[in-house]
Write a structure and sequence with these properties.
- This protein is an alpha+beta fold.
- It has a domain of 114 residues.
- The chain is 33% helix and 16% strand.
- A three-stranded antiparallel sheet has the order 1-3-2. A two-stranded antiparallel ribbon has the order 4-5.
- A hairpin with a 3-residue loop joins β2 and β3.
- The chain is globular.
- 25% of the residues are buried.
- The structure holds iron/sulfur cluster (2 copies).
- The site of one iron/sulfur cluster has 8 residues, from loops.
Length: 174
């Protein structure tokens, strides 16, 4: 199966799953979903995911400064207007969770230490994040991490997560 089809299948499985059983965007005013015309305001795409967005109106894809696998630039997706729910990139679907991965160990899913704007990352709120949502995100990244380029990307991303955790002085295990 081509990687594009795998992303589509993952999107479908995550389509109806959200961090809370209610629309958390209504609670916080969609803090994590603010389309912008500014450059460099966006979300990372996971390797190969850009194939789903080529030529789609409302999105721009740029090379980010984040590199992995001998200097390969990760792609950043910037949205200039609210997208259709079925088109959301994986980073938006899993927020505020993120895969934590080191070569040789299985993926773990943690609260993204960069997601400080999200009220669900507060210690009192995080236990209410839906188990089924966490399970499906874990399933998705256990599958994706079998692809060597994605595994390299996740390992490099984990360096960033470690740096944030060190800066903030705590870990975001779920
Ligand atoms: S910032 Fe957090 S609580 Fe608000 S919409 Fe995004 S995921 Fe939900
Ligand atoms: S891509 Fe869609 S879900 Fe993600 S921030 Fe932009 S409008 Fe929101």
């Amino acid at each position: 199966m081509h990687i594009k089809e795998i992303y589509k299948a993952i999107y479908e499985r995550l389509d109806t799953l959200t961090p809370l059983p209610v629309d958390c965007g209504k609670l916080c005013g969609k803090l994590c979903c603010q389309p912008s015309e500014e450059d460099e305001v966006g979300m990372y795409l996971f390797p190969g995911e850009e194939a789903l967005f080529k030529g789609l109106d409302g999105f721009r894809i740029l090379d980010s400064e984040f590199t992995y696998k001998n200097g390969k630039n990760a792609k950043l997706i910037c949205c200039t207007r609210p997208c259709e729910r079925s088109l959301r990139p994986l980073s938006c679907r899993i927020f505020p969770l993120i895969p934590y991965f080191r070569h040789g160990s299985p993926v773990r899913i943690i609260l993204d230490p960069r997601a400080t704007i999200c009220p669900l990352t507060h210690p009192e709120a995080s236990p209410y994040i839906e188990c089924e949502f966490k399970r499906e995100v874990t399933r998705a990244f256990r599958l994706l991490s079998r692809f060597s380029e994605i595994a390299d990307f996740l390992d490099a991303l984990t360096d960033i997560l470690d740096d944030y955790n060190k800066l903030r002085g705590y870990d975001h295990a779920l």
